[in-house]
Amino acid sequence: MSVYIRSTRAVPGGPTHPAADSGSVLCFPHAGGCASFFRSWQALLPAVRVDAVQYPGREDRFAEPAPESLAALARAVTEEILARGERYSLLFGHSMGAYVAFEVDRLLRAAGVPTPTLVLSSAAAPALRPPVPYERDADVLAYLERYEPLSAELRQDEELLGLLLEYVKDDLRLVSGYREHAGTRTGARLVSVVGADDIPEIRSRAGRWRDHAAGGFAQVVKEGGHFYLRSNPPVGLIAAELARAGSLGSRSTGTSRSARASRSTRTS
After folding, report:
1. Active site includes 250?
2. Which of 7, 36, 95, 122 does the annotation list as catalytic?
3. Is the CB of residue 118 less than 8 Å from the CB of residue 188?
4. CA triplet 11, 30, 156: central angle to 5 degrees?
5. Is the pTM of this model over 0.85?
6. What tens digit of pLDDT does each residue of 214-264 get?
7. CA 75 vs CA 49, 105, 204: distances in Å
8. Are 82 and 107 in contact (CB under 8 A)?
9. Which of 114, 134, 154, 227 is at a distance of 20 to 30 A from 99, taking alpha carbons?
């Protein structure tokens, strides 16, 4: 049984057997987020397998303690991917999830299982990320309000609000302590996505992910704020990136076959 990886295929009306050669995506949620945040994406990407990471303490993992560090979380996810023999075509991380996805990519590459594409959403480059408070409720509340105003119903439900704050504080602690990114450059194609109305500290620093890109970089600006993907999921972008990677892979395979044929002709 999977501990971290959740399939989004088991949704009413959604496809149950996406085409095996259309690509696979692993999604990483934001601080306080759950795997179910991406539940609707499978229906929006019917030819693609869409999985999502479930952090400890969320939904069906409610009773589990938070990880010691973001690096420890990424190691656990990576170990499960390797144990399952998975090879994802694209990793998608939103906000905090961008840092987890980036660290998982680093570990997968070290294990000889590189991912072709990383899409990092609503996140400043790690060395330039804004300070994140995670100790006092009032500070965390003010922090959350900058990114997306909380509903009146949530504010009035003290039990639910308290639970959310504990999730977010645990996650922000992980982000605050993340240092393993220093000096890391990935051979994956790296795509940074940011909302046009995101907070300035993220909007102006998302482009600096190019400092970590050794395999190509692109930046995309979407309409909306930090959570632009609630109303405008970037599934078109993801589909285009998967197609691009597939096309490059096909050309690479074709070139390799042509080269082998040429060598065979020359030696016969």
Report:
1. no
2. 95
3. yes
4. 90
5. yes
6. 989 999 999 999 999 999 999 999 999 999 988 665 554 444 444 444 443
7. 22, 10, 30
8. no
9. 154
CA-to-CA distance for 193 and 214, rounded, in angstroms? 18
Q: How far is CA 215 from CA 87, 102, 238, in A?
A: 18, 14, 17
Nearest to 147 by CA among 208, 191, 103, 94: 94
Two structure tokens written together for 227: 């959570």
Angle among Cα 88, 92, 97 to the nearest 5 degrees reads 120
Number of residues that make up the chain: 268
| Amino acid at site 26 | L
